[in-house]
Design brief:
The chain is α+β, with helices and mostly antiparallel strands and 85 residues long. Helices cover 33% and strands 9% of the residues. It is built from 3 helices and 2 strands, in the order E-H-H-E-H. Helix 1 packs across helix 2. The radius of gyration is 14 Å and the shape is globular. 14% of the residues are buried.
């Protein structure tokens, strides 16, 4: 049968260094990623950590969001995992 490959993102377990914010009217996932990670392409990390699924970049205001931080060591682990395949 056909096999559908889904993108498996790494999970981001809670850390004591994580940041917590309350979303504002103007917040978007890509803008928050740019603000905290200096890279809007990391928007999916915030989405994954907060179970925001696939609803575009918009976020409802007033949500408590966890911003996994720092993420440098996570990317090191991710790159290592990819290289080992």
């Amino acid at each position: 049968g056909d096999r559908y490959l889904t993108t498996r993102y790494p999970s981001f377990p809670k850390q004591s260094t994580d940041l917590y914010i309350i979303s504002r009217e103007t917040d978007r996932l890509d803008l928050l990623a740019n603000e905290f990670y200096k890279d809007p392409r990391h928007w999916w990390i915030i989405a994954e950590a907060n179970n925001l699924g696939k609803g575009g970049f918009a976020i409802k205001p007033g949500l408590q969001l966890r911003i996994p931080f720092p993420i440098d060591d996570m990317f090191t682990r991710l790159e290592t995992a990819v290289e080992e395949r």
